[in-house]
Input
Amino acid sequence: MGRAVVERCVEHLAKISDAPSCGDTASAELCRSLREAAPDEPSGLDPLLSLLFEELIPRSFTTPGPGYLAYIPGGGVYPAALADFIADATNRYTGVWAASPALVQLEANALEWLREWMHFPVGTAGLFTPGGSMATFNAILCARERHLGASIREGTLYTSDQAHHSIVKAAKLAGIFHDRVRVIPTDADFRMKVDALADAIAEDRRRGLRPFMVASSAGTTNTGAVDPLDEIADLCQREGLWHHIDGAYGAFFHLCPELQPLLSGLPRGDSLTLDPHKGMFLPYGTGALLVRDGNALRAVHSATAGYLPENQGEFYDPAQYGPELSRGFPGLRVWMAVKMFGAVRYRAAIAEKRALAVRAAEEVARIPGIVMDAWPQLSLFAFHVEGPALTTQAARNEATRRLMERVTARGRVMLTGCTVDGRHLARVCVLSFRTHQDRMTACVEDIAAEVAAILAEGPGDRTVA
Output
């Protein structure tokens, strides 16, 4: 059975470059047909593999492919799949250090590598999570406990109008409701305005509230913007606030010494969200959190019970730093990927994505009818369509949507967009280890061809090439 599964996976990956960048996702009728009761009798493996690889997996975004330039890509390096197979097959318990000391040490090593790459100090503690959302949730818990204690309702949290939606959602889960979350405006480059942040903090203090946390962004989802992290860190230090940085998309560019100035101030955060399933090209479901004062993370989660081993302090103990007691072994996929590739190759791959994005942005900007809205601060850029016949914002928005649909329909690359201040923008995000110059050339070619066709047609024609 193992050989059969591996053969299917290898065959699938061997063809991934030739697959459409977006499969047929208009599958509502198929989904209805898949509903079934739990079977009474067993099935053989081969029919299940055929259903998955021939019918169901192709009907999705081709997220591991080289043409996936939508949202924030994650490549899914193969050693991580092997690590997950080993972890699931051996099924060792890693929630408590005493149950698998040597295996938990591998996870501790992986967290230490992240700490070193982000230039966080010794004494930092970390946690692997299912993604950035849960990492942010745990960061807010730390800040809440440190600064508010039981007076949760008085606390106010600050983030920008370009921040990931998970920040507001995580705040609510942590007891910080929407009326205590302040959304700070951004500048022309979509970066948080520090003067507006300072004004909001001062106003809340005048109202008798307790500002306690700022959540900034090291690479937003909409436009890839990096907030002025140093300035925000200075303000938080003066005001006594916790500074959390959402680096889910952008923080791993900090691995490259030549790119660290783009993220100036990142090592000053009190906590940092990371998504190895983005910048480290790992499978989805690999998030991480770093907390500068490791005692703050342990204070939130440390607990014991009569049926558990006695807590110890020398070695990393996952249950003492996170909310889960029963858990998988997420650190193994990080450890195995870094061990098999090495940091040098990771740095080279990450630097390549930045270079590809910068070059592609310069070429796209020269296409008639394209207006750049956000140049790549990291590896993401955004733009829209303009033309003589597109006299209203609605017409420009519709033309930009048509552009993304048509480029994606060509099959070589997949693009998605975002809406900012009523403007619909197309986005290109380069962050898959399989994406190289040939695919970016195809992207620019397809954008140029479809923009020319859309401008020739005028507004309102939704024919897909």
